[in-house]
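User: Last request for today: this protein with zinc ion, please.
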Amino acid sequence: MVTRSEHIASDILFEWLLRRGDTALILGHRVSEWCGHAPVLEEDIALANIALDLIGQSRLWLGYAGEVEDKGRGENELAYLRDAWHFRNVLLAEQPNGDFGNTLMRQFLIDAWQDALLEALKSSADERIAEIAVKAGKEVAYHLDRSSDLVIRLGDGTPESHRRMQDALDTLWPYVGEMFVADAVDEAMAEAGLAPDPQTLKPGWEETVAAVFKQATLTQPQSDFAHKGGLTGRHSEHLGHLLSEMQFLQRAYPGATW
Amino acid sequence: MQVSTDTVWQWLSEVPDPEIPVISLTDLGIIRDVSWDEDTLVVTVTPTYTGCPATSVINLDIETKLRSCGIDDLRLEQKLTPAWTTDWLTAEGREKLRQYGIAPPAEEQAQRGGGTDARVARLTGLKNLVVACPRCGSQNTEKISQFGSTPCKAAYRCRACLEPFDYFKCH
Ligand SMILES: [Zn+2]
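Assistant: Here's the final one, the structure of the complex with zinc ion:
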């Protein structure tokens, strides 16, 4: 099967694939931290399953990234043997779980973005990207159904659940801007017809989140201040702590396998 | 002498799904192709969900079955396209699921899409899925959780017979 894109320099494609794979991996790891701690059994199971989907998606992206890089690194080496400054996930994905409401709000903001991004990637000129997008897009659409439903139920719930959801939205809002910023990598990908310019995803995303927040009786913050840096490897201190747990086994026992 | 691919399909139809053993891998619709590449038997498998922990068990079960049938030279390949949806489940597989107590996927639901209006209507809960109870057939059921005992199922409850049940979710 011809999969390797001929349309772009491999270092740019590699960088872009890491952004996809790392965002799914880091969010998946964060969600997995709830395993055994969720407020009710059904939510515990749901969170664990969502984490599994995200880690599965990450394997597809990082597997392809490793092939494009062509230096003998596969999905495992990329996930477990890089340090924080080599990760390319959006900062929103690495933010701590906080309470259940904060976790759901983070999930909803990212799901709505991924849903729009993967939909656009289905028509990528790179067939490997397109097929991963089709596969991951189905799962993300399902996650978005769930996170929207819970944001509405808790936002339009009790005074306490409403307060927690509004607090979560206010806390996380400064991290949404990074999802829609285009840099040289995005421009090259868009130029080659491989991926959309992230800025073009914003109107659809805004429409989705505004409709859900209206039903949820939540007030969308007006500020457009945006923390940036995750996509180029400048992370918050939270990522280092996350990695020290996620990568513990490979750090303590290099080369360990099942 | 090479056995026919029809025979191999028959063998594979005897391999149960590791998580829902009442249906076979061929009922589930995840075997995409069986072919010979010279002397090597190639079986192409598509994953149900990207993170499905059963994927490696399924591959092992296929290999074990085929080796027990005398195939020594075989290769498993993964294929993502076209992506698996519950529409790939056979009619027989659906009926086996129902008898086992798992509501089969609502057929037309696997196709998503529609424009922004349809998406917003779905996300804001204006459109709900009707799932019939596999035990008593009542459509008076409610969703308890979008995820159930495995990544491919959701948890429901029947308001008529009061029994909880699994629903094989649609993607
Ligand atoms: Zn019933």
